[in-house]
Amino acid sequence: MDRLIDLLPDLWPATAETLYMITLSLVFGGIAGFLIGLALYATRAGSLFPNRVVFGIVNVIVNTFRPIPFIILIGAVQPLARAFSIRGTGIEFAVFAISIASMFAIGRIVEQNLLTVRPGVIEAARAAGASRSRILFRLVPRESLGPLVLGYTFIVVALVDMTAVAGVIAAGGLGQFALVNGFRQFNPWVTWAAVIIIILLVQGVQFLGNALARRILRR
């Protein structure tokens, strides 16, 4: 317990580093994943821009990368990171790796949530003269906004887990704090302090996501 008290000045910066990684990864991975999800939705058979070749290629790419465990993906994307002049360790590389890992999961979630839009809504918009591009980029995302919020909330929770794993590459954050000062020092107090903060972060994100989704769905 005394060791935990001594480490409290390091715990709060570690929490800030975790939030930093989550925020940047959500921005980069969220935007890329949304575009991937739109592509999957738009090009599938019977959709707005059906294209079997494009859908097949994007679908295979997503199915290839999405199941890879994050701890393995970290090592696999190191050469790609160096191509962008990003060192293979540290917080910048963690954001790079987490963004890649999350964008494929987000792409699949976005696709599934866009598919919840009723075909009748799209047909009515087409009958009213709306272009396919307008329907794809404005109507469909707006109609599926509630489920999308829940989907992104789920991803944020997964990002918290990824930032913890990123502690093995000296990325900072609560993961490295628990690994270096708790696990390796056989100090469960330090480990559980990081666990409790992670639980609070997840609970806060889940509460906000659920509340926002309920508000949107009631409109």
TrEMBL record:
InterPro entries: AA_ABC_Transporter_Permease, MetI-like, MetI-like_sf
Localization annotation: Cell membrane
Keyword Phosphoprotein set for record: no
One Pfam family this sequence matches: BPD_transp_1
Assigned keywords, A-Z: Cell membrane, Membrane, Transmembrane, Transmembrane helix, Transport
Gene3D superfamilies (alphabetical): MetI-like (1.10.3720.10)
Membrane-topology annotation of the record: Multi-pass membrane protein
Extent of the signal sequence: none
ABC transmembrane type-1 domain segment(s): 15-209
Keyword Endoplasmic reticulum: no
UniProt family annotation: Belongs to the binding-protein-dependent transport system permease family.
Name of the protein in its database record: Methionine ABC transporter permease
Organism of origin: Microbacterium plantarum
